[in-house]
């Protein structure tokens, strides 16, 4: 199996180095692709955007047919979209690739190769409007996006998340977990400087407050016990002040939990679902079927592609430590259609943890 990573002058370093680390760790520890190749138009050294010099291992002329191809971004893409030799290479390799991935503004190379027309994709926050202006791409402001065999990610560091999600998709969550553990890739959830409130911040950055975690759920838990105690104290004080109010902190935590339930890597994680569903959980699905807790946890994984952040998200207190969460879901299907539904969930806080008691979905006409 051959996995190629395309490079060119003024490529952004982390766009390809982050995915390369995940890719080669997959090879080393979890039976990933046997052949991982850095590919350039020639074998001449490549000067990256921040001055790093790298040597391609294969040229366009010597590169074998690839099973997978990743295209990073950077300032160099602005020239490469007009490089017919490079675009022809991408077009020809894509004909037999099982998947083609882009990081950051590498999405514009995909578009020049005719691979994004009519698809959903993302790019660096600074180029989202430029991608929209192309007119034939549905731009999604998420960390990474999969549309069939085409994957794209947001800027720079997002390529590492893209690769880890890709590994989980093709090799399973256990394999992705090995890679994540081997690389010790557990990013800090801290945001610095308030830039999540910047006018150009993408929706996925604005949608959650990473200073909050998913409550003390195994690997999602805060590692700092003192921080856990401070968080619990703040919650207790808030409840004393108003038993039927819902703090902004809890609202954001509930939003994060609901969004995690729409992400395949957590929705089909038995560990996560057993932690978040209460013992008597029941769901009335949009199809009219009733699901028990066990049936929900044992459900056969299926592709999930729901637009995030969740539209019309609202939280209302029903009783002390019991809330009603409502929102709309827009699920994109493989045939290009979208299924919209109204959703409602009842959450209860027990011992400082939010547990899902009930969920219902009703299809919109």
Structural key phrases:
365 residues; 6-stranded mixed beta sheet; 17 strands; Rossmann fold; alpha/beta; 13 helices; Nuclear Transport Factor 2, Chain: A; 7-stranded mixed beta sheet
Characterise the protein shown here.
The chain has 365 residues and is an alpha/beta fold. The chain folds into 2 domains: 2-183, Rossmann fold (3-Layer(aba) Sandwich), CATH 3.40.50; 211-363, Nuclear Transport Factor 2, Chain: A (Roll), CATH 3.10.450. It contains 13 helices and 17 strands. The strands form 4 sheets. The protein has a 7-stranded mixed sheet with strand order 5-2-1-6-7-11-10, sandwiched between helices. The chain has a 6-stranded mixed sheet with strand order 13-12-17-16-15-14. A two-stranded antiparallel sheet has the order 3-4. The longest helix has 17 residues, at 13-29. It starts with a strand and ends with a strand.
How are the SSEs ordered, and which strands pair?
Elements: E1 2-6, H1 13-29, E2 35-40, E3 46-47, E4 53-54, E5 58-59, E6 68-71, H2 77-80, H3 84-94, E7 99-102, H4 106-112, E8 120-121, H5 128-132, E9 138-139, E10 144-147, E11 150-153, H6 158-171, H7 173-183, H8 203-206, H9 225-241, H10 248-260, H11 264-267, H12 270-276, E12 277-284, E13 290-292, H13 293-297, E14 314-319, E15 322-332, E16 338-350, E17 353-363
Parallel strand pairs: 1-2, 1-6, 2-5, 6-7, 7-11, 8-9, 12-17
Antiparallel strand pairs: 3-4, 10-11, 12-13, 14-15, 15-16, 16-17
Helix pairs in contact: 1-6, 1-7, 6-7
